[in-house]
Amino acid sequence: PVPKDISVIFVLGGPGVGKGTQCARMVKDYGFVHLSAGDLLRAEQNRKGSEFGELIKKYIAEGLIVPQEITIQLLKNAILEHYYTKETSKQSKKFLVDGFPRKMDQAITFEKEITPSKVVLFFDCSEDIMLTRLMERAKTSGREDDNIESIKKRFKTFVETSMPVVEYFEKMDKVVKIDCAKSVDEVYEEVKAALKNYE
Ligand code: UP5
Ligand code: MG
After folding, report:
1. Which residue has the least CA distance to atom 32 on ligand 1?
2. Taking the domain 7-194, which CATH number applies?
């Protein structure tokens, strides 16, 4: 069972909006553990002997959401690993869950089986800006989904499948929307202001 004294903040927003970049800053200043669902899936895809490698690869290239059983298990393992580690520098009860949940079933299952989120940071900017950021990153990222075909599919999935999750949390008054069209520093100022109420 998952310990009761953990806290989780969901970090949501479209592809390339800057979730990972802002999470890295928050880790430095607040001591959160950063769990990117996408990073966990990519690590599982590359793990020798993983029975899900091929499936994950296909879903990511198509910009589709990997079945929740896989992603939630990976998140749960990562949370428990950090919670129970003997290495104090890695120990934490405060988690930033980045890029998850991005489908309604995931939102409901995670909050029921693991813990309800404390707050949802929703990073927002236009698709034009996200596209520019992703095409720039594509030059060096080595990510197989950083190409124009996959990016278009990721945008479509975000609008159709992931925005309903943001709207669901909005109805629960849990969402803080952050304008990400600005510089990394300016966005981070807004993030810090948002966290004041939850730290
Ligand atoms: N950058 C960042 N902020 C900037 C700013 N303010 N001004 C200028 N530049 C800025 O940033 C992207 C780029 O923009 C970087 O080069 C950065 O320097 C620059 P980054 O912080 O990496 O953005 P992020 O939002 O993290 O973008 P990412 O591509 O990681 O978002 P996605 O949501 O698309 O990717 P993720 O890894 O979360 O998911 C990938 C795939 O995994 C999904 O498409 C899906 O197929 C699968 N998945 C699931 O199936 N289930 C899940 O639960 C999660 C993922
Ligand atoms: Mg990311």
Report:
1. 15
2. 3.40.50.300
